[in-house]
Design goal:
The structure holds two protein chains of two kinds. By secondary structure, chain A is an all-alpha fold. Helices cover 78% and strands 0% of the residues of chain A. Chain A has twelve helices and no strands. In chain A, helix 5 packs parallel to helix 8, helix 5 runs antiparallel to helix 10 and helix 7 packs across helix 8. The longest helix of chain A is centred in the last third of the chain and has 39 residues. Chain B has two domains: 213 residues, Rossmann fold (3-Layer(aba) Sandwich), CATH 3.40.50.300; 65 residues, no CATH class. Chain B has eight helices and eleven strands. In chain B, the strands form two sheets. Chain B has a seven-stranded mixed β-sheet with strand order 6-7-8-3-9-10-11, sandwiched between helices. Chain B is of the alpha/beta class. Helix content of chain B is 35%, strand content 23%. The chains are: A mainly alpha, B alpha/beta. At the A-B interface, helix 9 and helix 10 of A face strand 6 and helix 2 of B. Chain B: InterPro entries: AAA+_ATPase (IPR003593), ABC_transporter-like_ATP-bd (IPR003439), ABC_transporter-like_CS (IPR017871), ABC_transporter_ATP-bind (IPR050166), NO3_transporter_ATP-bd-like (IPR005890), P-loop_NTPase (IPR027417).
Chain lengths: 279, 295
């Protein structure tokens, strides 16, 4: 990419954003036909029916709502009315715990599978069977056995993030270059030291790729899981605002979920850059 | 001179695709003395790398054994350092890190400062002082191979095993590195087993040159004693009166005799004691090339 193209790209992005916002604004501001009705009935129906106003909020309404959330993200006004910051913190906390537990399981087991072709074959049927199961299908079983909705959500995150990491770790460990292992062998390096000084650094970029896929899936799944279990979290917030018919808040949450997902991905991308080595 | 390596009747067989077995070589015997520089020449597929891997302990022979310093070898050892064909540096470590990794494997209880000191000395020996903090990807092919040599030398091995260490380099770098390798090995009295298929490299470096026939069923055809003086210079060896006789003998072997010898070994060929060929002027030898010259 030339320096000029590098400068052009953000300008084009900005332009696209403006076009999108303008289209959105125009699409929702058009007045529909107002209906003649009894004044008492009109009070119940609201402006959508009486003034022909669109039910869809415009960009300005959403911007105002976002500003409102940003001004006070951590308020608590009862069980069903908490600031968006608090809801996000719950979701991120669940993802962090579930993902962290998955790392603790997936990396050692992945090592085992990658080192031993026998274990690879032995565990492969289980992995192939479990991997395509939608994590939400585990929810009833989790709720029944764990009997705690919050821990069940964490379990669902755990079960969905473990597979990509497991598979990538096993693949990374199995494809460490033979000559690097031979270097360790001719230096009489013991198996533990070899695992930490040769296999782990060599497989780290592949492992990080698996972690990046996992955190992406985990962030997708937490929203759906929280819609099911309810109580707290950004997923619950979206569903609650749908029940309140607050489309503005729903759109706000969509944007916030996107931003957080992007940040999580970028954190792991940065970590991946740190462990990647040029050959 | 005392014997350091004794290869005793080793064989290597692999299961053949259509059932049965393919024998790469069998009944292979070779002795190498302490401080000797031995080069093995042969075409690809003759099993010379397999022999080196067996010496390194990275591979096991199907039959026979290898004795080093009066003990049968069982697996890799820090006493036998390998310089790999593709340098095999760990790309996430710096030059210093790669060499220090070997040093700290050799002297496990050495302090960090001591490890670094030894590593820096080995890097300086191969002429790379100043590049300690570079990653392998920032180095040229010749420099990478130097790091590989430094890593092998740093652990002060009894035997150096080299698998075509200079084959991937350009001619100029190769010449310089050959000179340095010879100087270092002579200074440290290193025993070296080196594989090459470059005739000139073998003539310049080796004390004895082992000729292997083509595989499968490869044999050690003969062991040629290098007639050139120990104090030789790369630019001058071709003026030595024995140089062309030696070079022609080696090339003749690679061109034709590497096949004919395997298929039809001369009468009285004993794999335990392959014929020793001396080309230093007129001495009776069993070499056909010498016979042709005499005629």
């Amino acid at each position: 990419m030339t320096a000029r193209e590098r400068l052009q790209a953000p300008l084009v992005s900005l332009l696209l954003l403006l076009v999108l916002l303008a289209a959105w604004h125009i699409a929702v501001s058009g007045g529909g036909s107002a209906q003649e009705m009894d004044p008492e009935y009109a009070k119940l129906m609201g402006q959508t029916a009486t003034a022909g106003k669109s039910a869809m909020p415009g960009p300005i309404d959403v911007a105002k709502t976002i500003w409102g959330h940003l001004k006070d993200p951590f308020y608590v006004k009862g069980a069903n009315d908490k600031g968006i910051g608090i809801q996000l913190a719950y979701s991120i906390g669940r993802v962090a715990i579930g993902f962290g537990l998955a790392v603790l399981f997936a990396i050692p087991i992945g090592f085992l599978i990658g080192m031993s072709p026998m274990m690879n074959r032995a565990l492969n049927p289980f992995i192939q069977l479990m991997k395509p199961v939608s994590p939400l299908a585990w929810m009833p079983l989790a709720l029944y056995t764990i009997k705690d909705s919050s821990i069940s959500a964490i379990f669902v995150i755990f079960i969905c993030s473990i597979w990509p990491m497991l598979i990538n770790t096993a693949f990374g460990v199995a494809s460490v270059r033979r000559e690097w292992l031979n270097v360790a062998r001719t230096l009489e390096v013991g198996p533990i030291r070899r695992a930490f000084t040769v296999i782990l650094p060599a497989a780290a970029p592949t492992i990080l790729t698996g972690m990046r896929i996992s955190i992406g899936i985990a962030w997708l799944v937490i929203v759906a899981a929280e819609m099911l279990v309810g109580g707290t979290g950004i997923g619950y917030f979206v569903w609650n605002e749908w029940n309140n018919l607050s489309i503005t808040n729903v759109i706000t949450s969509i944007l916030v979920i996107g931003v957080v997902g992007m940040v999580l991905d970028q954190i792991l991308a940065q970590a991946q850059r740190l462990v990647t080595f040029p050959e | 001179m005392t014997r350091q390596i004794s290869i005793e009747g080793i064989a290597k067989r692999y299961p053949a695709p259509g059932g049965g077995e393919t024998t790469i070589f069998e009944n292979l015997w070779l002795r190498v003395d302490r401080g000797e520089f031995v080069c093995v020449i042969g075409h690809s597929g003759c099993g010379k790398t397999t022999v080196l891997n067996i010496l390194a302990g990275l591979d096991q022979p199907s039959e026979g054994c290898v004795i080093v310093d009066e003990k049968e070898i069982a697996g890799p050892s820090l006493d036998r350092a390998v310089i790999f064909q593709g340098h095999a540096l760990l790309p996430w470590k710096t030059v210093l890190g790669n060499v220090a990794y070997a040093v700290s494997s050799r002297w496990r209880r050495a302090s960090r400062a001591e490890v670094e000191e030894r590593a820096r000395r080995a890097i300086a020996t191969v002429g790379l002082a100043g590049s300690e903090d570079k990653k392998p990807s920032e180095l040229s092919g010749g420099m990478k191979q130097r790091v590989g040599i430094a890593r092998a030398l740093a652990i002060e091995p009894k035997i150096l095993l080299m698998d075509e260490p200079f084959s991937a380099l350009d001619a100029l770098t190769r010449g310089t590195l050959q000179e340095e390798a010879r100087r270092i090995c002579r200074e440290t009295g290193q025993t070296v087993y080196m594989i090459t298929h470059d005739v000139d490299e073998a003539i310049y470096l080796a004390d004895r040159i082992v000729l292997m026939t083509n595989g499968p069923m490869a044999k050690i055809a003969e062991i040629v004693v290098n007639p050139l003086p120990a104090d030789r210079r790369q630019g001058e060896i071709h003026h030595d009166p024995n140089y062309y006789a030696l070079r022609n003998h080696l090339l003749d072997f690679l061109v034709s005799r590497s096949v004919s010898f395997r298929d039809d070994p001369p009468a009285g060929y004993d794999p335990r004691n392959p014929p020793i060929v001396r080309l230093d002027g007129g001495e009776a030898s069993r070499s056909p090339a010498a016979a042709i010259r005499a005629a």
